[in-house]
């Protein structure tokens, strides 16, 4: 009961933060959330676990898994480490992209892939509280920065840099012109389309057979003709057509 009282009053059921839904769970188990069609089916090993809050995307994947603790469990470094590790395996098994442990005074952001704290660009642990109602836009921006930064090999936010794509565009055009003799405008369109294809795949908006990674993997199949890979991309059920569905015509 004490832990539940410490949960932020900012949560309700649900709050929308950008494209995600924020749920204050309370006494609900992962299995009951699955039965209510809120999340994807959890492993039997963790189906009875009760997260304190979740941030879920439109595919019912868990973006953020939140555990609330008593203040006494954060009173020392050793206790904090123990509190973090206590449910870390659950966050991993549920494939949460971010794991958060908090008490009434501190919010700790964890990379489930490494078990380490997520750091800002200066190398300091992120301590931002989750306030979806009053700071929804800021929360969304932070989560997106984290999602494009952390990996199995990185716990630190990547620095935002303004890049001039002119040199890259020129190099791409030169290669396309030499190979096919196409015009500069066509080369630019090709460059933009390829860039967009890779970018949408990295954001997980193009998944599975529609992703850049899937298409690229086709080249590794024995006997694959590069022309067949292109045909796959351009087909009526291919990645290019799927990419079009993500944008409103005329926008």
UniProtKB/TrEMBL annotation:
Annotated protein name in UniProt: SAM-dependent DNA methyltransferase
GO biological process, alphabetically ordered: methylation
Keyword field: Methyltransferase, Transferase
Organism: Ligilactobacillus salivarius
Keyword Methyltransferase belongs to the record: yes
Statement: the UniProt record of this protein carries the keyword Methyltransferase: yes
Molecular function (Gene Ontology), one example: methyltransferase activity
């Amino acid at each position: 009961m004490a832990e539940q009282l410490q949960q932020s009053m900012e949560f309700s059921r649900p709050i929308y933060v950008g494209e995600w839904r924020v749920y204050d769970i309370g006494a609900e188990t992962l299995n009951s959330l699955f039965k209510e069609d809120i999340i994807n089916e959890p492993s039997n090993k963790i189906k009875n676990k009760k997260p304190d809050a979740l941030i879920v995307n439109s595919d019912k994947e868990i973006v953020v898994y939140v555990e609330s603790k008593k203040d006494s469990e954060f009173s020392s470094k050793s206790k904090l480490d123990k509190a973090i590790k206590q449910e870390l395996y659950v966050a991993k098994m549920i494939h949460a992209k971010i794991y958060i442990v908090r008490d009434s005074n501190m919010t700790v952001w964890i990379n489930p892939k490494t078990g380490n704290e997520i750091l800002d660009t200066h190398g300091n642990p992120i301590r931002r509280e989750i306030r979806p109602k009053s700071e929804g836009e800021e929360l969304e921006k932070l989560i997106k920065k984290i999602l494009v930064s952390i990996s199995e090999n990185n716990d630190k936010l990547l620095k935002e840099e303004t890049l001039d794509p002119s040199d890259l565009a020129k190099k791409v055009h030169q290669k396309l012109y030499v190979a096919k003799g196409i015009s500069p405008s066509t080369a630019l369109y090709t460059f933009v389309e390829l860039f967009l294809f890779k970018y949408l795949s990295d954001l997980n908006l193009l998944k599975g057979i529609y992703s850049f990674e899937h298409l690229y993997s086709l080249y590794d199949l024995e006997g694959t003709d590069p022309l067949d890979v292109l045909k796959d991309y351009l087909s009526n059920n291919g990645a290019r057509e799927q990419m079009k569905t993500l944008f409103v015509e005329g926008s």
